[in-house]
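Can't paste images in this forum, so I'm doing it all in text. The chain is below; anyone willing to post the predicted structure tokens underneath?
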Amino acid sequence: MRVITKQLTTNKRVKALPIIIKRDGNVCFYCLMGFEPKVERWKREFDHLNNDNSDHRIENLVLAHKECNNKKKWDSDWQIKAHAKLDDNTKNGYVGVREKNPHIETSEEIDSNREFSKITSEYLIENLLPHKGNLPIEEKIDFKMCLDTITLRCHKLYGHASQNTIRRILDMFCCSEGDFEKIKQNGRWMIQGRKGR
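Text version of the structure:
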């Protein structure tokens, strides 16, 4: 039986959070990246898979970035993914790990994203930050060239890589809290080490 209240209360959020993290991991359900509490668009929030904000059943809730939650409203692929997740949660239950875990693929994607983040970080540090008293190799790197190079490195190492995923990782490293920043120069986006760091 479905219990409906108008808002997702603090008490319900506190109870739901560990269950959802155990079920899906502490990442955005849509892009599979971690949360950044200090960056508004990458903060963690609850999303209602069926878009009914009064339906607070645990099987209807996932964690999402604020930005991804908004994007889902017009992204048909993410809407399909949300409906499939709700169907899966409803059919198979939603607490704990089952012998046949339908989230294994997601777990593998999360592991890949961690590795992709590490490769991206190493590439940016290697090229744009000083090491052992030496100046950086580059002052600025063309964003598109950087994106293509890191995607290729990830593909060579893991046999797969998504430019969308790498783009999000680059954006994360260039956020206001990061050591890097994106600037526009002659109509092209460039990445450089953040000044004053």
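Helices lie at 10-24, 66-72, 76-92, 104-128, 143-158, 163-173. The chain has two domains: 10-92, 104-193.
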